[in-house]
Amino acid sequence: MGSLFSRVYDAAMQPLEATRFKQVRTELIGKAKGRVLEIGSGTGINFPYYKNAIRVDAIEPNPSMSKRAGDRLRNARVQIQVHETGAEALPFDNDTFDTVVATLVFCTIPYPIKALAEIQRVSKPGAVLLFFEHVRMEPFLLSKSQDLLNPLWEKVCDGCQLNRETLTLIKESGIEVTKVKAYYAKLFLYIEGLNMEK
Ligand SMILES: C[S@@+](CC[C@H](N)C(=O)[O-])C[C@H]1O[C@@H](n2cnc3c(N)ncnc32)[C@H](O)[C@@H]1O
To answer: Ramachandran region of residue 104, left (φ > 0), alpha (ψ -120 to 50) or beta?
Structure first.
């Protein structure tokens, strides 16, 4: 069965996926090359978009989400392995990955600073780090509305924080941000960065 969130996720996302998100995922996942780590792969919504990767290791702690990735996993054009674990303690050696992908996931990771440190540890120096995330908005009224809605939102959406300042966290982690593109009044950000560690 799994949580209500995992059961309705794909259907709830469909209106966005069919329009703008399809274009964003095509661009973002198209840049994933070599050995790729995907953080919080959920129902495998990104899997059909991989075409340039050698191999993808996807991590997803919630089996109710990953069990819904079956068809996308079987039909993927590249080899993908899903690992049942969280981003705060990654089961990979230092300097393993050429690219890391995280889409709509940093809102939900309980300890995002730890996760960003782990991403830098397991990715190679100069690795490409690709994010698509919703964030706290800039206009006062909108960000205050996000703050007010958040207690209910996190209950309904499996811990998702509507008002997390993910771009700031990424910059503070030491990742060099090389490109940012905003969507839907800067609610969603496409972020490219480089691992500057070591
Ligand atoms: C909103 S879904 C996003 C799924 C998919 N990445 C997408 O683009 O639609 C957030 C996902 O993050 C996962 N998640 C929650 N805590 C996590 C953690 N500590 N590390 C990695 N993923 C986590 C959830 O289980 C869920 O599948």
So the answer is: left
pLDDT tens series, the chain, 198 aa? 568 899 999 999 999 999 899 999 999 999 999 999 999 999 999 999 999 999 999 999 999 999 999 999 999 999 999 999 999 999 999 999 999 999 999 999 999 999 999 999 999 999 999 999 999 999 999 999 999 999 999 999 999 999 999 999 999 999 999 999 999 999 999 999 999 976
Q: Which atom of ligand 1 is nearest to the CA of 40?
A: 22
Strands 97-103, 34-39: pairing kind: parallel
Architecture of domain 4-194: 3-Layer(aba) Sandwich (3.40)
Q: Can you give the residue ranges of every domain in the chain?
A: 4-194
Tokens encoding 134:
């919703």
Distance separating alpha carbons of residues 41 and 65, to the nearest angstrom: 8
Please state the pTM of the whole predicted model.
0.97
Q: How far is the CA of 62 from the centre of ligand 1 (A)?
A: 8
Residue of 22, 46, 108, 158 to mutate, ligand 1, most atoms within 8 A of C-beta: 108
